[in-house]
Design brief:
Layout: E1 4-9, H1 13-23, E2 29-35, H2 38-48, E3 52-56, H3 64-74, E4 79-84, H4 89-97, E5 102-105, H5 113-121, H6 131-143, H7 148-158, H8 163-170, H9 174-188, H10 193-202
Parallel strand pairs: 1-2, 1-3, 3-4, 4-5
Length: 223
């Protein structure tokens, strides 16, 4: 049996790196290409003829939902698994309604992605999977006295995102992000982004096992 031809589509280099690290050793999966923006996805599908696409729901250019509609019309045989960095059940339901075969939170262990892809390739529809990492993160946040928003921001810090990126994701100002991080640092007893990220991974607060880019953090402190 030939391997599953897989196209990866995500605008975050770290996520792509983690996916490749998890999936390249799998003999049943062949990564045939990558797309770093929504506008690249359809041309890449035409070039690489994948069986399956692992697609970030929030992509620059065309987003995942728009792409689901277009893929369904142009490449109906190509199956799509959606990745999301947020816990959004309504978005998951909408993605599945538009033809996605599975909806995975980025809190899923990368080692668990390959089994999902195999199930999808075999014709199964996998329900939304925000999995255990999110639940562990929520419980850990409560233990350390973090609010829901503080937990979400800490998760993004652990993923290596800058204040500007986090602010854009949540439609908040960078000053508000700094304010939340000041409270996070105080509650966790840390003084830098690197320490906060390490603390998050050590105590189950990261909400995901994707690697933070420790070489590209902002300077120590809140900002």
């Amino acid at each position: 049996m030939r391997p599953i031809r897989l196209l990866l589509a995500d605008d975050h280099a770290l996520v792509l790196q983690a996916l490749r690290f998890a999936l390249e050793p799998e003999p049943e999966i062949e990564i045939v290409g990558e797309a770093r923006s929504g506008s690249e996805v359809l041309p890449r599908v035409g070039e690489t003829e994948p069986d399956l696409i692992l697609l970030d729901v929030r992509m620059p250019g065309l987003d995942g939902l728009q792409l689901l509609d277009r893929l369904g019309k142009q490449y109906p045989e190509t199956k799509v698994v959606i990745l999301s960095g947020a816990e959004e059940p309504e978005l998951a339901a909408e993605a599945l309604r538009r033809g996605a075969r599975a909806f995975l939170g980025k809190g899923i262990d990368p080692a668990e992605v390959a089994p999902v892809l195999r199930q999808v390739f075999e014709g199964k529809v996998v329900s939304e999977s925000f999995e255990t990492a999110v639940g562990v993160s929520v419980r850990a946040a409560e233990e350390f006295g973090l609010t829901g928003r503080e937990r979400e921001i800490l998760e993004r810090v652990a993923m290596g995102r800058s204040n500007k990126q986090i602010a854009g994701e949540f439609w908040l100002s960078e000053q508000t992000i700094k304010y939340h991080l000041t409270n996070v640092y105080r509650k966790l007893g840390v003084s830098s982004r690197t320490e906060a990220a390490r603390f998050a991974y050590d105590h189950g607060l990261a909400g995901n096992p994707w690697p933070a880019d420790q070489n590209h953090h902002e300077s120590p402190g809140v900002g």
